[in-house]
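=== Structure Prediction Worksheet ===
Name of assembly: unnamed complex
Input type: mixed (protein and possibly other molecules)
Chain count: four
Listed entries:
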Amino acid sequence: MDRRQRKTREAIFNSFTNLLSKKEFNQITVGEIIEGADIGRATFYSHFETKDFLLKEFCEELFCHIFDTEKNSQNEHRHIFECNSSEPIFLHLFKHLQQNDNNILALLSSQNNELFLRYFRINLETLIESHLSLFESKKSDNLPDLFWKNHIISTFMGTLKWWIDNKMKESPEVITEYFFEVL
Amino acid sequence: MDRRQRKTREAIFNSFTNLLSKKEFNQITVGEIIEGADIGRATFYSHFETKDFLLKEFCEELFCHIFDTEKNSQNEHRHIFECNSSEPIFLHLFKHLQQNDNNILALLSSQNNELFLRYFRINLETLIESHLSLFESKKSDNLPDLFWKNHIISTFMGTLKWWIDNKMKESPEVITEYFFEVL
DNA sequence: ATATTAATGAACAATTTGTTCGGTAATGTA
DNA sequence: TACATTACCGAACAAATTGTTCATTAATAT
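=== Predicted Assembly ===
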């Protein structure tokens, strides 16, 4: 990718983040974005078809990183604990959220959180799917598999929502404990 | 309220519902709404400050009705079953959703479902709050009350989401069973 | 019967969107 | 270094949308 393209894309994302922390997504105009990014109007449209596509790619880059980390750390953790528990993975995820990515959390707790939580959920779904077998023991037999999967995801999202709304006062360890407690 | 006002308001709501079933909220313009409602532009703005206020009042009227029914039926149910179980209330809510209000469900399952689920959640919160004591027995002692409340709400919303996504194939009885099963 | 209030419709400025195009400058490659 | 490619510029553009104004008409409540 051309360095100019990278720089422009970066500038757009930065301006976008900046605006997102101040106002609702719907209220943000392309004019504001390009003003903040200091680029021409035509340039914006040569990068992104619409504002919605910008959001989509933005979220993909944002969450792709954190969930890739989880995926990669998964084997490592299995190694350390030498057990089948899925707890380390979620603990690690909560830790990652609290410590390493204030950027992401600023967005998850912003006025646009529903927007980001939606995208977060999509990524979470993939992660949980690959760990579904680890929850099997807690599942009642009469529940449909897909209902059970949906419930795990909802519970995680609910836990995260509560933690964020609650200013993340609790430690990742405690939150992980709560998460498994209610499951 | 003046009959003309009522009629206009009704016409706006009807046109709005109509459009909501076809496209995303953000894509709907005031022009389309007034065209469908067959009223003048100035008239619309004399009723609603903005499109967002229209949505707000629309949701309030919509969900206010269903949750009021629940609230009123609550005593009745307690009477019939002569027990403290909260199950009848939620069963009744699922039944109400499936049978009596295709209008509401069309919206909850439309492209705008996130929008309506948000408002639904707000109303649900109030309902659950007044029944919190009935869930006490299932709660672990070390969980904060507010976390527990949040989890009940998330679980209900998750159940509802799954049910709607799943075209409501299951009976309200089964869904209620699932709901209490995972709780 | 009358005063009040709501709806009309047309016109209005202001904002925003998405596109076009010739010119300029940075970039990757040979 | 020289060259061809490609991204950016920026100004201008039509089209759509927003939200307001105002004089006129018609329905309503009492």
